[in-house]
Fold this protein.
Amino acid sequence: MKDPLKDLNITDLATMEENGDFAIVCLNKQRHSSSSSSSIEEKESNRSEKRRVKPIALDYPKKNGEILSGQYGINLLLFGIALMLGVSYHGYSIKEKHLLSFITTVMLIQLLWMLWYVVRRDRQKNSVPEKDSHAGTRWLRGGLTILALLSLIMDAFRIAVYVGYKECLSPTLGVYPVVHVLHTVSQVYFLWFHIKDVIKTCQTFERFGVIHAVFTNLLLWCNGAMSESQHFLEAHKKRLASLGFINYTGGHDEPHCECAISSCSMFSKSLYYLYPFNIEYHIFVSAMLFVMWKNIGRIIEHQHKREKDGLRVTRLVLGPILGLVALAGTITILVIYIMQVEESLETHRMAISMFYCHGIVMLACMCIAGTLGLILYRLDNRPLDASKNPSRQLDTELLCGSSVGTWLMSWCSVIAAVATHSNPRYRWTILAYSLLLVLEKYIQNLFIIESLYRQQEAVVEAEDQDKEEEEEEEEGGGGGGGGGEGGPSGIFSVSSQVPSCRGIVNQAFTNQENVYVSLNSSRLRNGNVPLCSLNQELQEPPVVPVSQDRAGKPDRRQILRNIAIFLFLCNCSLWLLPAFGCRPQYDNGLEQETFGFTIWTMVLNFAMPLNLFYRMHCVASLFEVFQHV
Amino acid sequence: MKDPLKDLNITDLATMEENGDFAIVCLNKQRHSSSSSSSIEEKESNRSEKRRVKPIALDYPKKNGEILSGQYGINLLLFGIALMLGVSYHGYSIKEKHLLSFITTVMLIQLLWMLWYVVRRDRQKNSVPEKDSHAGTRWLRGGLTILALLSLIMDAFRIAVYVGYKECLSPTLGVYPVVHVLHTVSQVYFLWFHIKDVIKTCQTFERFGVIHAVFTNLLLWCNGAMSESQHFLEAHKKRLASLGFINYTGGHDEPHCECAISSCSMFSKSLYYLYPFNIEYHIFVSAMLFVMWKNIGRIIEHQHKREKDGLRVTRLVLGPILGLVALAGTITILVIYIMQVEESLETHRMAISMFYCHGIVMLACMCIAGTLGLILYRLDNRPLDASKNPSRQLDTELLCGSSVGTWLMSWCSVIAAVATHSNPRYRWTILAYSLLLVLEKYIQNLFIIESLYRQQEAVVEAEDQDKEEEEEEEEGGGGGGGGGEGGPSGIFSVSSQVPSCRGIVNQAFTNQENVYVSLNSSRLRNGNVPLCSLNQELQEPPVVPVSQDRAGKPDRRQILRNIAIFLFLCNCSLWLLPAFGCRPQYDNGLEQETFGFTIWTMVLNFAMPLNLFYRMHCVASLFEVFQHV
């Protein structure tokens, strides 16, 4: 007889394991993988092995492993940032080649680790590794592969530029793109085949490997974001000089010799159109690897995959149409802006006004869409999914964290618009735009996070049915054997109707919102399920086939899907604008008047990369929302 | 018969509640408090109340409440920071009075909320609120009260300065310290009587109130830190001007009229010696309030308070002596530095060299002490405490988070020392000092975090005993009924020796490090404990009286206590130096050469407040370590 008891307590053990109990270092490699075959001899040999190992105390608490490796990663990044600060000063002691050599070394170390990991995994082919099904969905990996391809093209351009100028460039600038190509190719392979792995052996060492990979990618992101802002700032200064505002002589980014091949300038110019993709690629990879790091040593609970829906597109009309209109409008604005902003002072101002008006319309629509979504959720209140999911947890934190950049920028604009003594024509437009920007992110974050955390409809409906049955029963039976055995606090009472095993009903919780408990206790009374699996079910509501339930409420779901697809396309648009150089925050002059050039540039250099990441991250999250709503 | 089953599943329910299930808004106020009395009538009335309430859907998922209020708090802070950036530009549109009016408003709102909270709590006197015993220990609150008193003195000085200059100062500068006095007094009252409260009613509203208080204090911290850095920078420039390095005319911080009372300048000068205390006060309060915010709606598990030890001071010799020597040395260095650095160029350089040499000795000793502590922990490996404790969790994150500032500063110094083309006399001293600083924080963080997470000795020893018994038994019985019932994965097997209820032994976990499980299964076999409480015990190891066990290993514990007290005094010293103006990073010129004045000042303005907070936070954490080791 297949015993339903055998899964009991997996969640408790997972909690123990995750909150900081022992992770055994390499010596005990095969321990976990061997636990799948449960012959007595093996257990005996394991036990004796443990006896031998114990006095050496090679086991190391998980918490320490995390702190050790986390601190290493932070310092790696900070060293890189310190080098970048040195480079950005354009002093005589720290040059770009120093920074690039450091990054190249770091990438090579990551390559070595990945090689080691893959080879070791291949050797352990007989033991199937545990996988976290939530980490790195297929479409996310697909998207990253496309970004990686664009990064490869960028590397090719870089190599071409190096070949052209190799007379006067340091060899590091030639080695760097070659290593980056290797790094990108092998990292994409790693993402496809190993990102879901839950590492159980050599934990402390692997933690260092994975965190090294995380921070290597963060370093590459920082470097990309810095180069990009610097390039943009130089272009901006040149533009101001051409309009006669400032006197600007030469930049720092051009080599001081003739190019040996033709079309050199074509390569170096196109390079900057590929930067945004490269930047997004690295930050997304580092987020995925971070989830892998969080998963090390985790005991995965039973994960019910959300049922796939085959992306039904029926009645998906309004959302996509409005979204495509927004996208088309944005691309038009982008082209006009880039053309007009360099022409004359009058067209320059026209372009800025146009940008802000377009932004106000878009953000207002997005606010309305998000609010509508939240209202729909409030109309159908339900408990949020409480199962452990580091991937989703990280999504939430990144959404709120990366909003900080834009929020700071917006509040600066608001203050500048209110406090300015001059009265530029787009003063109030900027004020409205900035306030809407704050509001839009506020609402959108709420919408996305609630969407990601909501339980599937079917689960809740099944629970509701059970609850109703339960309540009817309870009213008849007057609480069963409840109150009698109340202890000192009386919060927990025991229903003694189940033979040989006891059902526990938490009264405090029942009073509050008793979907789970009553589900279980009603089953208990029906005698279907042995009591001791109650705990298991408490944490994992059963999944009931979904299709028929879903069909019942098509309207609400269709509206939500339309909202998701609309927001998806709007966020794509709002990513496009700054990514391809449409940044009127540099050009409008209002904030510079209030905060001064240095402070305002500093704010923008902080906010812009975060804003770009925020939009891309929203695009990814909204796609997930769209798939599963 | 007192039934041990009644506590089963409290941790599961807590998990469900905390991960994002329903928080009922004000309408259901009394629900929780009434659950302690379990009469049937009450349950019935609760149930019918719930029926009535449900269609209105006033309940709101906890996750959403958190995101809603968290985002509000972040925006409050960012608006304040934007104002500060405006003030620091010294432009003509944003003045200090605007910033202070904003902060005053925010403080007044917090005052109103606290008043409302206290009044409402007083009315509900009959229901005893749940408390989180880990939040805000008594000595921490005591320390904060002292800091608050110093803040009050500072406010008095501020009022005196305002009275002196009131001719030419905005009234806001007079209102601000008065409101701050009110705010400080009532906040200290709140800390003493309500900081441990676990709020269960009006959750969404209370979340806004608490987060508002958190970010008000963060805002006050930012404002203090900014004023302090600006003041320091001005003093530094004046000093450079007096040494003939630069040409500096006048600061921004002096009013442009005569003072009406005598000793005005005494007041305004003493003000800056009180700043450090005020700054620490606000950041600590905001951390404590943050823990209160995390606790809202939480179901507190049974918290076993660590046994008090009465601070035995026997054999506490080496640590305190060495620590006091370090402290005395530091104070000497501080006085000499402040005197010498303004005299001549030669004494200026002498003072800087002296500071770094002193630092190297201290940091090296601290590294050795920390390493010794970690080795002692490795000699006595034990599982870390996994129970939920937001306060400790925050401590860990703040330790690592606030280290980032110093690490960045140190890596910049390292790069500057290596890359510099000139060869100042303290080049290698700075290099050694910076590397040691990185290493010291790395080791100290590991030591403190492991100390905070380690279980009490007694618990583990009791478990070890049980484990040994268990292992002997197991070897005799050959694994019992283990392998037979292995399911698809075979990780869990069921021991069928216990009548009427089944014991589950996780083989994977058993192989790994089976303190908990074997403890339980051995009891099971002895038939002492009914099976279903196994789960409960799994998560909460029993607390055995400690004293006799502790006496057994006096040496190791005494060494650890000596280490803790030594590190405590060292961190006090390292806080004193920068807090009272000993910041040679501004004076040595090495990093300015490599990074330029702007970038290096920016780095220092970021790193210094974090560093000060880090030291203070270490002092608090080490005191806790000292008490409980």
